[in-house]
Write a structure and sequence with these properties.
This protein is an alpha/beta fold. It has a single domain (3-175), classed as Collagenase (Catalytic Domain). 27% of the residues lie in helices and 28% in strands. The protein is built from five helices and ten strands; from the N terminus they run βαβαβββαβββββαα.
């Protein structure tokens, strides 16, 4: 049974770090690991929905992996730029800049366990390449990126019934799981475009890895 702790809302990261440091130091005393949830943008009332979303995602995992979901607060950030999709404009976050910000927050608060940022806004990454005649730029949406220390999940244009599966997919990466093509489960490499899951949750191999994987309370960046 996972307990959900809500520590309050913060309008921006310009907060009293002494308060959140005191709270985060409590995580050092936890035998189990926690999922520390930070909402990026959005409305204050999103808190309950986001925490429940992570709770639903964690239910796909063995119960001994996490015993707390801690709501850290809300991070208000200006969008890096706007993107246009189907004639609609949306404020977007640049992936690398957002990840660096998350790492800075994690280091500042001395959090031991995963810091997971969730946003309803698009996160994009930019690639430059040479096509034999000139350099070109391509922009791709990033829906999830999670490692041992930090992670971000974008629910932009993600169906409601798929949201918890996307978060579970990201949390799977946090536990060392990799993409695969068969069977079609939560770690399927094209999860958001899969018509149906052949396995409701994780496949046998993934479940075995989750049981064998030991929590790393002092993770190293990948």
């Amino acid at each position: 049974m996972i307990s959900v702790l809500c520590l309050g809302d913060f309008c921006s990261w310009n907060m009293d770090l002494n308060i959140i440091n005191s709270i985060c130091l409590l995580s050092l005393l936890l035998i189990m690991e926690s999922i520390n949830v930070l909402i990026i943008g959005g409305d204050p009332e999103d808190k309950k929905d986001m925490v429940e979303l992570v709770e639903d995602a964690s239910s796909f995992f063995p119960t001994e992996i996490w015993d707390d979901i801690i709501y850290i607060g809300k991070l208000s950030l200006e969008h890096d730029f706007k993107i246009k999709i189907s004639r609609e404009s949306y404020g977007a976050f640049l992936f690398r800049r957002l990840i660096d910000r998350m790492k800075g927050i994690k280091d500042s608060t001395r959090l031991v366990s995963l810091l997971l940022g969730i946003t309803a806004d698009p996160i994009v990454t930019v690639y430059h390449f040479f096509d034999e005649t000139s350099f070109k730029k391509a922009i791709y949406l990033v829906h999830d990126y999670v490692n041992k220390k930090v992670g971000v999940v974008s629910l932009f244009r993600v169906k409601e019934d798929t949201s918890s599966k996307l978060v579970a997919h990201g949390l799977g990466h946090n536990r060392g799981l990799r993409h695969h093509a068969e069977p079609i489960d939560l770690m399927y490499y094209e999860l958001l475009t899969a018509p149906t899951l052949e396995v409701d949750g994780f496949c046998k191999l993934c479940r075995r890895k989750l049981r064998d994987e030991k929590p790393d309370l002092h993770p190293h960046p990948r």
